Amino acid sequence: MTDFKEQLKSGLQAMNLELDTTKQLLLLEYVSLLKKWNSTYNLTALRDERKMISHHLLDSLTLLPYVANAQTLMDVGSGGGMPGIPTAICRPDLHITLLDANTKKTAFLQQAVIELGLGNVTVASGRVEAMHDKKVDVVTSRAFAELHDFIALTKHLLNENGYWAAMKGVYPYEELENVPQNIEVYQIDKLHVPTLNAERHMVLMRPKKGE
């Protein structure tokens, strides 16, 4: 455990993220839950806890600077809770909805929310196109769908000034070519995730005003 604590701590320092000990311990507890329930719910292909810290925790936390002013967020196709649960632990003031169509995964998410005491998180089970009772500041996803489909399936979830924060691996050249004309891609950043030897990019998009 100490080893994992150190790995998380040095990763956070490299990302310039300051989190108190309580939040760091909750993040590690979340990884333990993932590991514990993985065989039952098939939440992640990873079995190595060290990799879970880099691929799941630190990777998810690259979202934090992009939701600094948001009050509501929806994590679409949340799966095992990435990036929604790590974000919720770090931002207890941010109201987060975790949405997934797989009832096994939402059962795990509900369990994790209870065990981690995350009062700012709601779990929703169902298809994203059927969600019509909620509008949010930010819609995010990690490897949920190509940008064109992500936009089409979730546009109705954005509030008036809402935007998308799409977490991608390699630079999505082809996907960007298929983004609809009425959508503005206003920022693409290459991300650095400590001890993760793979490309990561953040794509920020919003509907063009008046369209």
TrEMBL record:
Parts of the chain that traverse the membrane: none
Entry GO CC: cytosol
EC number: 2.1.1.170
Signal peptide: none
Primary localization class, coarse: cytoplasm
Gene3D superfamilies in the cross-refs: Vaccinia Virus protein VP39
Recorded GO MF terms: rRNA (guanine-N7-)-methyltransferase activity
Pfam short name (any one): GidB
Residues that, per the record, bind S-adenosyl-L-methionine: G77, M82, V128, E129, R142
Swiss-Prot/TrEMBL catalytic activity: guanosine(527) in 16S rRNA + S-adenosyl-L-methionine = N(7)-methylguanosine(527) in 16S rRNA + S-adenosyl-L-homocysteine
Keywords of the record: Cytoplasm, Methyltransferase, rRNA processing, S-adenosyl-L-methionine, Transferase
InterPro entries in UniProt: rRNA_ssu_MeTfrase_G, SAM-dependent_MTases_sf
Localization per record: Cytoplasm
Function: Specifically methylates the N7 position of guanine in position 527 of 16S rRNA.
Family designation: Belongs to the methyltransferase superfamily. RNA methyltransferase RsmG family.
Database matches in NCBIfam families: rsmG_gidB
Protein name per its UniProtKB record: Ribosomal RNA small subunit methyltransferase G
